[in-house]
Amino acid sequence: MAEAAVAAHRFAVGDRVRVRRAYPPGHVRTPWYCRGHAGVIERYCGAFPNPEELAYNRPGLPPVPLYRVRFSSKELWPDYAENPADVVEIEIYEHWLEQA
Amino acid sequence: MSAETAGYYRRMQAAVEELLVLRGVVTREDIDAQVAAMDARTYHRGAQLVARAWVDPAYQARLLADPKAAAAELGIDTGPIPLVVIENTPGTHNVIVCTLCSCYPRMLLGVPPQWYKSREYRSRVVREPRTVLAEFGTTLPEGIDVRVHDSTADMRYMILPMRPAGTDHLGEAELATLVTRDSLIGVGLPAAP
Prior knowledge:
A: mainly beta, SH3 type barrels, 2 helices, 5 strands, B: Nitrile Hydratase, Chain A, two-stranded parallel ribbon, 46% helix
């Protein structure tokens, strides 16, 4: 795993995004619990070789932009029982995100 | 890993290690040196960064802006993986997990505790963080927000806990002894002086 490259990327800090509700087979780094949910871009982390390719010994290039996305815990789980202001921040690759 | 399968994986690991050595891919010395390097890294590295940040606000700002460069200032090499330091504040408490596997800031905290890798911690801390923290003996003040950081990809995280009250008279070395491993993960708070 190397340091981040900086690449052209689609989303800016504060943008509303939604995680694709997709369930492809194989190695994926997008947790199930956030799929289909909307959040806000917290930061751009740089671009990294695609782990969905790396897992099968392929180069994963060009690098994929990676973001930290902030989700309200209440948005992720409507029955979330603790403080409604709580959040979860998750690293998500750009090809999993669409404009919300 | 159950007791039953541990035997299987341990045997497989030994077989792979033996083959790598026989084929000349690595030497026994390489393996021993890596194990020694891994054992030499402990959370005291992270504690050192936190104690410096507590006594030097300019250093704290650098630690949050560029953790790798700030660690290098103290002679700590954090390697190639990007690092994010997240600051606890009076209004927000932060905690780290990797819900997908067990990504952990080994460069600053060493080998992860068993519970960090458990399915129970990984599935529950995102869903009911206060309940999980309470089981660690950590009670948060009323009204504080919890921010859970799921380390799912290429970043690694360390929490910068708040300096405990009543420590104005302590120097950097003494402050470092108050920083617990769990406070750097976010399931705990620093020890009282």
